[in-house]
Amino acid sequence: VQLVESGGGLVQAGGSLRLSCAVSGTIFSPNTMGWYRQAPGKQRELVAVRTTSGTTNYADSVKGRFTISRDAGQNTVYLQMNGLRPEDTADYYCNMASFWGDFWGQGTQVTVSS
């Protein structure tokens, strides 16, 4: 299983970015796919996840600003990030969790300038 993220970059505060994560290989179902982030000197934290049945969960800090979605084939997950803040600066990691294992992408960097 391979997860490949894309879409990170540098953006000014208030701007938007869209992260994508494509999964290749065996996709175990049911599963939960989502995004976590890790800022320098901090622990990795959940940003947003979405199950194959459509249930979502967001960190309080991103509610109302970020939206997670999955394509119809359930092998790509997106994170639309609006109203970005400097505190959103971090490495963002894609994750697929299932009964058969927990898989991570290599991460994509998001930097929000003030």
Task: Give me the secondary-structure topology.
Layout: E1 2-6, E2 9-12, E3 17-24, E4 31-38, E5 45-51, E6 56-58, E7 66-70, E8 76-81, E9 90-98, E10 101-104, E11 108-113
Parallel strand pairs: 2-11
Antiparallel strand pairs: 1-3, 3-8, 4-5, 4-9, 5-6, 7-8, 9-10, 9-11
Provide an overview of this structure.
The chain is mainly beta and 114 residues long. It contains no helices and eleven strands. The strands form two sheets. Strands 2, 4, 5, 6, 9, 10 and 11 form a seven-stranded mixed β-sheet that branches. It has a four-stranded antiparallel β-sheet with strand order 1-3-8-7, with no helix packed on it.
Short note summarizing the structure:
The protein has strands at residues 2-6, 9-12, 17-24, 31-38, 45-51, 56-58, 66-70, 76-81, 90-98, 101-104, 108-113.
Descriptive labels:
114 residues; mainly beta; 7-stranded mixed β-sheet; 4-stranded antiparallel β-sheet; 11 strands; 0% helix; globular
Share of residues in strands: over 45%
Which descriptor suits the 3D outline?
globular
The helix content, as a percent range, equals under 10%
End-to-end CA span: 37 Å
Quaternary state of the chains: single chain
**Which structural class do the helices and strands define?**
mainly beta
Q: Sketch the topology as an H/E string, one letter per element.
A: EEEEEEEEEEE
Low-confidence stretches: none
Mean pLDDT: 95
Report the total helices: 0
Overall number of strands: 11
Report Rg. 13 Å
Largest sheet: 7 strands, mixed
